Structures are given as C-alpha cells and as structure tokens.
Amino acid sequence: MPSLMLAEALAAPDAVARFLAADEAAWAAFGACLRVADPRAVVTVARGSSDHAASYLGYLLTARLGRPVASLPPSLVTLYDAPLRAQGLFAVALSQSGQSPDILAGLHALRRAGAIAAALVNDTASPLAEVAAWCFGLHAGAERAVAATKSFLASLAAAARLIGTWQGDARFLAGLAALPARLAGAAERDWSAAIPPLAASDRAIVVSRGLGLAIAAEVALKLKETCGLHAEAISGAELRHGPMALIGPKETVLVLAMRGPALAELVSLAAELRESGAKVVLAAPEEIGERNVTLTTTDEPDLDPLAAVQSFYPLAASLAEARGMNPDAPPHLSKVTRTL
Predict the structure, then answer these.
(1) Structural domain for 138, as ranges
(2) Is the whole model's pTM more than 0.90, yes or no?
(3) Cα–Cα 20 to 30 A to 158, which of 42, 63, 85, 121?
C-alpha cells in the first residue's frame, strides 16, 4: 500500500489545478491593489516548508519586479517585541495550517505597523485568515501526511500567481495555467537512480542557485524529516567560498541544475565534484547529457522549480522506505507545529 506522502504528492497536480481555477476575481482585484499601492519592499512571514515557498516568492519577485524582499524572523515580534515600521510595505504570510502563534503574531504586527497584509494559507477558516487584510486559500485539500507535499506545491503556485498578477504578465500567467499538466508529467519521472547513493549515505549536500535554491532547501528538509538523512542545502556559489573543502569521497551531493542563468555553472560544478571523488547525482534538463535524473521543463523557466520538487517527492517516499523508515511517521513531528 502506498504511503500517504506518496499518494498526496501524486495528487499535487490536481491540487494546483484547483487552486488556479479558484478566486479569479479576488486575485485580479488584489493585483490591481498592489499596482496602485506600489509597495517599495516586501516582507515574508513563514516557517518550515512554507518558508521555502516564501524564499521562492522573494527571489522571483525581486527578479521580476525589482522590489527587495526580506524574511521576518517571527521571534523579533514574539520574543524581542521589535518596534516595526512597515508603512509602504507589503507583508505576506505563508502557512499550511494558519495556526502557528508566531506566524500570526508576525503578520499581525506588520499589519498594525502599516503594511498591506496578505496570507496564502490552506485553511481559510484558520486564525491567520482573520489577521490578513487579503487571504487566499491554497485549495490543496486536507493533507493527512505529516510531510507537506501538495500544499507546498500549491504554495509555490500561489507565489507565482501573486507575482504574475501583480506584474500583469499575461504570458507568465498562461504558463502558470498550463502548469498542472507539466506537474503530472514530472510526477511520472523516474528518479530511482538517485536512491542507491542516497540510501547508502549518512549525510548529503543539496546544491542549486537562484530560484532553485528554495527547492534545494525543501529537498534537504524532506531528506531529514522523512528519510533520516542529514542534508543541508547550499548555493553553488557559496559552496566555493569555503565549504568546498569538505567535499570528498564520503560526500553525496545532489545538484539541482534548472534552466536559467546558473545552469551551465551548476553542471560544471557537478563535474568538479565528481572529480573530487564525491558521489554526485545531477538533476538537469534533458539536453544535459551528464545528468543522472531528468528535470521536467515547463512553459516558463521560472516555473521549473515546481516541476523539480514534484519529481522529488515520490523519490523521497521511496527513499524513506529504502532506508527503513515510514515517511508518514517522522519521529518527533506533528502536522501542526506551534512555535513562539
């Protein structure tokens, strides 16, 4: 019997399709609001997988709209009572449950300090929805597995929709509309070649750059929480600034080389890592002959990270079982995490 994690990961394309079909008028009104208000900067509030979606949102938003984006550490509000000044800012919280007290406090403080406050949340009946001036449901449906999969992909789609709607980019939004079909193809990708090196490892490094770095962080988290494999995400550029000294025959490195300005450099880095003796798994588009597993491409390169994580989730479920773990019962974790 397949794990809940696998079943829900395979349901993600339908979840994203539901999300993209919903709330069209509200999204259009929100985009118009942002264009009129013209926020000078953006602040995100999130934790865990939702924070990885926030990182994708931040990178994509700055790349496309030029606004600086910062992630607010919730403890600045809950522990340090920082005197926030948020006039002229746009604040967005991302959450699956919408119940974590620190996320609620962070968005509430930003709204009280003058920011336009929005929430992207799977449960629109949650407390977070009441805190936000604008709230958009992810429409992923109930997620029974502890490890988020379909709700994370819906969060990424929401981030892309927010930016495309704000920008008024019809071509990008058309690519987003075609995304569910691309995700369905990505879910069928065979990434089993990655199982032997990862199953035999004590630790792994997940490398990417640009928009792919948020996905590397999510991959590393899932390797830790569902597979019991200590994994850390790092930028390919940062790897060269010191950590490269750690690479040797004992290291397993997963390189996520997506389309975009960093593709050639990441493929070259993978070759260097192999020469150092590391066990390298290169995930790259079909045209890259040195790849070990294939990344599905979408109608817009900026959406390729969603296809990458869609292909990874079934691998994670299989890898957990190969390592003797139950992906539906990660130790010390629960579905709703309440932190301050």
Answers:
(1) 4-177
(2) yes
(3) 85
